[in-house]
Amino acid sequence: MEITPNCVVALTWTLKDTLGEELDQLDEPVEFLLGGRDLLQKIEEALQGHEAGDRLDLHLEPEDAFGDYDETRVFLEPRAIFPEELEEGMTYEVLPAGATSQDLPPGALFTVTEIYPEHVVLDANHPLAGIALRLHLKVEGVREASEEEVGAGTLGAGFFKID
Fold first, then answer.
1. Backbone angles phi, psi at 94, to 5 degrees
2. What is the CATH number of the domain that holds 16?
3. For the whole model, what pTM was predicted?
4. Half-sphere exposure of 43 toward its Cβ, with a 13 Å CA cutoff?
5. For 18-40, what is each residue's pLDDT tens digit?
6. Please, is 19 exposed, middle or buried when counting C-beta atoms within 10 Å of its C-beta (0-12, 13-18, 19+)?
7. How far apart are CA 1 and CA 79, in angstroms?
8. pLDDT in tens, 88-141
9. What span, in angstroms and rounded, lies between the C-alpha atoms of 122 and 82?
10. Are residues 88 and 60 in the same domain?
């Protein structure tokens, strides 16, 4: 079956930065809905017309992937609102009660980047923002999407989802 909009494609991949450092390896196939919110637009475009067994090598600039790094999405919050066992690299989908930042991006993931006695530095950029990516994909399978899957707009994989 050929890949078309509103079908489900099972992919494996190796994701690297432009220096060749491996960022992610997916050895077991994961299903994504084309025409929904599961994949970046450039990946969907590249997959069109391919079939199971095909391999693709893609180069994605930041604007085609997770956007440019935005310094305005880095902010401070009081250390006191966080639990004692806080560590750099921890992430929050929702900030603790007492957060003072206004105009936070909806649906963002907040990463703790630095911890000080009085405050915590949080970064709401996607972890891959500002990075050009090289993606080696293998199409492991293709199938028709169900009405429920198309209606939901996602299979919930979420790796390439941008909020």
1. -135, 135
2. 3.10.50.40
3. 0.78
4. 27
5. 999 999 999 999 999 998 888 99
6. exposed
7. 54
8. 999 998 888 888 876 776 778 899 999 999 999 999 998 899 999 999 999 999
9. 12
10. no
- CA pair distance 126, 80, nearest whole angstrom: 25
Residue 20 backbone zone (phi > 0: left; psi -120 to 50: alpha; other: beta): left
CATH number at residue 84: 2.40.10
Write out the residue range of the structural domain in which residue 32 sits.
7-66+130-152
How deeply is 27 buried, as exposed, middle or buried, from its count of CB atoms within 10 A (0-12, 13-18, 19+)? exposed
12 pairs with which residues across the strands? 138
Asked whether residue 62 falls in the same domain as residue 136, the answer is yes
Q: The tokens 């992919």 sit on which residue?
A: 11
